[in-house]
Amino acid sequence: MIYGDKSTGVIVQGATGNQGAFHISLMNEYARSVGGRGVVAGVTPGKGGQTVHGVPVYDSVREAAEEHDCTTSVLFVPGFAAGDSIMEAASAGLDLVVAITEGIPVHDTMKALAFAQMEGCCVIGPNCPGTLSPGELKLGIMPPQLAMPGNVGVISRSGTLTYEVVNELTRAGIGQSTIVGIGGDPIIGQTFVDVLERFEQDPQTKAVVLIGEVGGNLEEEGAASTTLPIVGYVAGVSAPPEKRMGHAGAIIEGGEGDARSKISRLTSMGVPVAGKPSEIPALVRELL
Amino acid sequence: MKLLEFEAKDIFKKHGIPVPEGKVVKSPDELYLHMDDFADEVVVKSQVDVGGRGKAGGIIVTKKADVVATATHLFKTPIKGLTAKTLLVEEKLPIEHEYYVSITIDRATRQPMILFAETGGVDIEETARTNPGALRRASFSPLLTEVPGYQMRHLLGSAPRELGPVINALYHAFCASDALLAEINPLVTTTRGVYAADAKLIVDDNALKRQGITVNRDLTPREREAEENGFSYVELDGTIGVIGNGAGLTMSTLDLITHYNGRPANFLDVGGGAGRERVMKAVRLVGGMPGVRVIIVNLLGGITRCDEVARGIIEAGIDQHVITRLAGTNEEEGKAILAKYGYQMLDTMEEVVRAAVEEAEA
Known about the structure:
The complex is a heterodimer.
Chain A: E1 10-13, H1 18-34, E2 39-43, E3 51-52, E4 55-58, H2 61-67, E5 72-75, H3 79-91, E6 96-99, H4 106-118, E7 122-124, E8 130-133, E9 137-140, E10 149-156, H5 159-171, E11 176-181, H6 192-201, E12 207-213, H7 218-225, E13 230-235, H8 259-268, H9 280-287
Parallel strand pairs in A: 1-2, 1-5, 2-4, 5-6, 6-7, 10-11, 10-12, 12-13
Antiparallel strand pairs in A: 3-4, 8-9, 8-11
Helix pairs in contact in A: 3-4, 6-7
Chain B: H1 5-14, E1 22-25, E2 41-46, E3 59-63, H2 67-76, E4 87-91, E5 95-106, E6 111-117, H3 124-130, E7 135-139, H4 149-156, H5 163-176, E8 179-190, E9 193-196, E10 200-203, H6 221-228, E11 232-235, E12 240-244, H7 247-259, E13 266-269, H8 276-287, E14 294-301, H9 306-316, E15 321-328, H10 331-340, E16 344-345, H11 349-361
Parallel strand pairs in B: 12-14, 14-15, 15-16
Antiparallel strand pairs in B: 1-4, 2-3, 2-4, 5-6, 5-8, 6-7, 8-9, 8-10, 11-13
Helix pairs in contact in B: 8-9, 9-10
């Protein structure tokens, strides 16, 4: 529960699009099953007055925030407009924006994040599956049926790989406190360092699984920043240099960010690193 | 997407960066149209997208009288495997000193970062390795529209002040063209002023559309086909085709293949919510790669429905053996469909990969 709980009021930007509408219904289904508030309003400029799965839609975040008690936005706005939407939410006083959108031009992300930081608004993503605190709150598109409540935090740059790992943990009887997909872009809001800081303050979280991939060195920075016990996994040992492996940020550039050197740096910090996802539960159990 | 030198120079010029006088030609004959414009000495530059072009013989200084012969030679000479379709013929600058400047986006600070060195030219990478202190860095808030003065003073050190406006103009070009990299190497001082002697610009693929760029030339034909279908696709040179959903899961599948000493032929992420037709296209695309002996389809259905995936695989009707691992939404229907056609299905990523490696190596 590091980004909110059952009482969190959520709005969805890009509410009337296919993705937005579909995930409003899934998020609210989950909210009902755990007794939470879920999505209280939607926003799509020009579509104010409509409803989506029973949720009222407004033209702007400011209007939605005036009518409803909400602190958090989940963003399904198309790439070209997403940077602007992050800034809109930040300037309307929201505390948290979860940007699911992929394909945002990186200059837009960079500017929107700088603006959000000035406004004191925290951003998860973009290009991420969002976050899930099993039994409490789902912000984004993670399938909750694979997860179960517990005391292991999960942080990842990748969506489906997170589901794979969460599935392995649950099958091994290891529950999760909060699962956070921080996103696969080169520039992201919450980094491993930021999320680990929250996990450290969270009484529920006793250990963390850190799922990284090729590109940059955010994983190593994260691991160096925390006192919590960590298990690592890094995807991309077979990735060739200078080729983008799906995620915009998953690219080995100028000899930097390849998986093997990432793994050896993590190992030298004393972090056990799994060779494959199925090895993760056993390594976690040793730490608990 | 990487722009060619002359394209990057066009953009730099629009932002007020002085570039040498030059002509772009697509054949040696076109040079006859420009003879009056050339000085006695010119530089003929092969417009191919490779690093270290000068050292590889792609840049030749020549007399005006020999320019056609030189151009004819360069049109026929592959530079690191690439043959130029265009040449840039430029005036030879009276260079006094060479500097280096580039702007990138720094992941760690989430800010634009400028690198500057008082020694530029072809050896900049060597300099960065042997004398990292020679490269000065500055980063600042992306909400600023100019390079702050204190950062400019730090960058320039004892270099001439007249480089400052060029660096600022480069920053404007960097922002306006959605660049991931804007580089001038060398940035030169001459008796007549400052010039960008070379130019490099990489445009963010996510911004190509708004930059008015319709074709991403960095892609192979198969990669282009994949892009048109909305797949993330990378060509490798192994024997096991890989289709997955989600970049991380797909990359992890490739890693597991490598772990068991197999060789992946490709990376293909079909993306979220792929239906029958998209899956069919993906399977055909991978099946059409030379050298692919067996294909793995590894899908965790969330938005994606396993029954749609199964129908897509069957409709693709390719020669290679397809081994699947389907889990999640509509898993039972998907498995039932594939079972009817005798497809091999396994329950974990681990099992699928081992089966495929065994078959590919047999």
